[in-house]
Amino acid sequence: MNIVLLGKTGSGKTAICDWLTENLRYEKIITYTTRPMRKGEVDGEDYHFVTDREFEEKDLILKTNIYGNKYGTDKNDLVGADNKIVIVDPNGLDELRLLDGFSFVSVYVACPTHIRYSRCVRRGDSPMITLSRISSETYSFDGLVPDITVDNSNGTVYPAVISILEKVKEVSDCSHHRCIK
């Protein structure tokens, strides 16, 4: 079963994704972005870092624009995928729900604003840009209905990961037995 992670800036989506890919048999779908690399990021591992022109030349879906930086996913990475993880925004989730051939559990990673702000500043993000992103996300997540919401505020990803894996098992067991949610 595939996992789709969503969450506001600094909620810990990437940390959860990294734990699942490093410790279990999940593979991260590496998306494309025009934003500059952050310290410690690696092209082809964290994202495919591309120019605006390269981005436009690719056949990408789940496109979004965050503060002038474009993000998108190669559709071929999704169709027929199994045990993959992708991080998207709420619009990306809506688009995925319409895509044939990609079954998944959607997970919203929740975390209080003050913790998210601290995480962003610690990783080197500009405090002013972080505040602006946090403010703009206030409404973009309104109406989001994920399959599961996990709390990732305590500083370790383990409780969130356990909740995710329990839901994945439940959905997988249900799909094998053709039960209705």
Pick out its properties.
181 residues; alpha/beta; 5-stranded parallel sheet; 4-stranded mixed sheet; 6 helices; globular
Described by the principal axes of the CA atoms, the overall outline is globular
Binned, the helix content reads: 25-40%
Give the strand order of the largest sheet, numbering strands 1, 2, ... along the chain.
2-7-1-8-9
N-C termini distance: 15 Å
Rg over C-alpha atoms, rounded to the nearest angstrom = 16 Å
Strand content: 15-25%
Poorly predicted segments: none
Mind describing the biggest β-sheet? 5 strands, parallel
Number of helices: 6
**Mean pLDDT reading:** 89
Strand segment count: 9
Output the structural class. alpha/beta
Instruction: Give the helices and strands as they follow along the chain.
Output: EHEEEHEEEHEHHEH
Verbal overview:
With 181 residues, this protein is of the alpha/beta class. The protein has six helices and nine strands; from the N terminus they run βαβββαβββαβααβα. The chain has helices spanning 13-23, 52-57, 90-97, 113-122, 127-140, 158-176; strands spanning 2-7, 27-28, 32-33, 48-49, 60-66, 69-74, 84-87, 104-110, 148-151. The strands form two sheets. The chain has a five-stranded parallel β-sheet, covered by helices on one side. β5 and β6 (69-74) form a beta hairpin. α4 runs antiparallel to α5. The chain is globular.
